Structure formats: structure tokens, C-alpha cells
Fold:
Amino acid sequence: MSLPHAILTALLEKPSSGLELTRRFDKSIGFFWPATHQQIYRELGRLEASGQIRALRPSGPVRGQKKEYEVLPEGRAELARWTAEGAAPRAVREPLLLRLRAAAVVGTDGLAAEVRRHLALHRAQLDDYREIERHDFPAETTAGENRLQHAVLRAGIGLEAFWVQWLAETLETLEALETPETPEALETPETPEALETPETPEALETPGPLPPDQPDQPDQGA
Structure:
């Protein structure tokens, strides 16, 4: 997506002045395609010069009246062409993920505070999205356009919900890594076993009583 197509989309939804357009960006399209006020005004001039938009004639005195823009047929055709055009998904480039990878080799000192800050920001953004959904997309709204716009918002809600859960889990991991381990209590040395009594040689067997003397046998006479 490019900024010119984002502006054409916004102007087709509602003709607006440059100031109104920047305010609308801050509350809708700017959530997923941010642009500064200077970038928006610069692109309005280019779109007008290329014949894709034009300034509406003021209905009253010109002085003090903001210039409003509307999309011309050429601009609508360009937006339709771009909408039907294929594009590959963009690779994720998130510095925090790279910092976590680096922390695995250089240590995690101070990183928990940064993760905690990101977690607070994503929680706040998730709350904002849910409030927009409650206000702008009540359950009874089923018009085709609104359903597609709601689908975009639900994508934002899903992404923020993912980040909140992942950051909370990652913070727990970091805090566990940064908490110094309590040294194990010194083990009480085992009580030395009592000195083993040296094995005594088997007691000498006491000889049994000697048999009584046998009387001499008389010699047998020859």
C-alpha cells in the first residue's frame, strides 16, 4: 500500500480538506499506514497535479474557507487497479525482536524495562481499538462496506492482542533470567559414620571335651 492510495480511499469515503484528512488519518487509516501532516499535504498536491483529485469549489466566501478535495474518475480507476493488484506479504521488521535475539548473547540487562514499556503501549492501543469497535461497529451493523472496515479493525485488534500476550510472557521470562539465583544453602556435612569396628577374626573354636582315655586293650594271647 502507498500513501496516495490511502488518501484516495479516505477521500472517496468522504471529501475532505487537508486538515480534516490529517485528523481522520490519526483516527483510522493512520493506525496501519501512518503519515505525517506534511506528507499528506505534499501528496494532495501531487494527486491534484496528476488529475486524480480536484479541489471543490467553495459554496461561500473563499476567504478563511478550507479547500476540500474530491476524487476524479482517473483517481477512482487508479485505486481500483491497485486494489486488484497482487502483492507479497511484507517481512516483519521489529527492532524489539532483534534486541531479544541480541540479548541471548550479550545479556538481558535493562531489556525487561523496554519490554514492559512496549506492553503498556500495546495494551493502550488494544483498548483504543476495542472502544472504536464498540462505538463504530455495533452488532446490528451489517452493511457490506462496514463489514469490510470492521474486518480491518478486527485485524488490528487481533495483532494487538497477540502482542499483549506475547510481551507479557516474554517479560516473565526476562524477569526470571534477571533475578539472581539464590545460592543454595550450604549442605550440612553428613555426620561421619561411626568408625567401623575392625572386623575381629573369627573366634577360635573352643575344642570340645577330650574323649575319656580308653583302657589299654589286653593283648590277645597267642
User: Anything to note?
Assistant: The mean pLDDT is 83. Helices lie at 3-13, 18-27, 37-49, 73-84, 95-106, 111-136, 144-178. The chain has two domains: 3-84, 95-178.
